[in-house]
């Protein structure tokens, strides 16, 4: 770890030599980009060797191709985070092939089908949502931390869990007031604090990046699918909750925040919930 923060010629947010696992490194099909893919690309641009993990292997492969086309280094792993064995395999494979894990980003979320009037859903859909949004986060945090504590350095690694303002506010119509999405993100926030406390003696840092109205593929598509919004109505709904009148945030802003949390510059930060929401939660 480089602590030469005072040097004028220091390269900021340098991830060179670091192996970064991004769980959710592919994305849904459709126009635009997802947070996970943007984080993969930006981490690679800052020198990281990126492991793009996704249930949809072709989507992860596409992320890898985008990175390698720019001269970066990346590999894809197929995994379903609702299964503990798949979560374990992500990190076993990374350790066996790359030899270490320096960073992990959990950028996975689903909104199961539900009834708009009652906010009800089948038990199967509820369970699957919790398994992906929360239980997968727990397993990936655990297995990533166990890898990182083997690095044998003062700061052995950094975990970034992507959460949502859905965990702290309630407003139907913006993917927010939906169980088990919101419940899963509440659990993710606590998993961050629990893991941060447990692995602090090993030098592992764990932080939550809590996103608000981000112009992402899943945010746009789920708003249209779940609430029957047109693309224009989605834009209007998101703009209504942003206090900073500069439009929605972009996935690249999410990615830069994640890269900061992965980099040495954030070495003194752990167990925190950082809101990137345009001020949407200023007044709750």
UniProtKB/TrEMBL annotation:
Belongs to the short-chain dehydrogenases/reductases (SDR) family. Pfam families: adh_short_C2. This is SDR family oxidoreductase. Coiled coil: none annotated.
């Amino acid at each position: 770890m480089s602590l030469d923060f005072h040097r004028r010629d220091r390269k900021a947010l340098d991830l060179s030599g670091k192996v970064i696992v991004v769980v959710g490194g592919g994305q849904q099909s459709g126009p635009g980009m997802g947070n996970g893919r943007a984080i993969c690309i930006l981490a690679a641009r800052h020198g990281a060797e990126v492991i793009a993990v996704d249930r949809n292997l072709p989507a992860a492969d596409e992320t890898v191709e985008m990175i390698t086309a720019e001269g970066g280094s990346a590999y894809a792993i197929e995994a379903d985070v609702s299964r503990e064995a798949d979560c374990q395999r992500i990190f076993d494979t990374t350790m066996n092939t790359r030899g270490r894990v320096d960073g992990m980003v959990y950028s996975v979320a689903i909104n199961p089908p539900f009834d708009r009037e009652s906010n009800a859903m089948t038990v199967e859909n509820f369970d699957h949502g919790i398994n992906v949004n929360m239980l997968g986060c727990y397993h990936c945090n655990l297995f990533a931390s166990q890898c990182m504590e083997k690095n044998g350095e003062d700061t052995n690694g950094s975990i970034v869990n992507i959460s949502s303002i859905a965990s702290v506010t309630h407003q139907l119509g913006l993917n927010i007031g939906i169980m088990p999405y919101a419940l899963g993100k509440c659990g993710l926030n606590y998993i961050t604090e629990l893991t941060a406390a447990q692995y602090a003696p090993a030098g592992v840092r764990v932080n939550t990046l809590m996103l608000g109205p981000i112009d992402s593929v899943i945010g746009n598509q789920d708003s249209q699918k779940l609430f029957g919004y047109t693309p224009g109505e989605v834009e209007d709904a998101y703009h209504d909750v942003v206090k900073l009148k500069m439009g929605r945030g972009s996935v690249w802003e999410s990615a830069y925040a994640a890269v900061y949390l992965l980099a040495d510059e954030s070495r003194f930060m752990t167990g925190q919930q950082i809101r990137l929401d345009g001020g949407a939660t200023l007044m709750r």
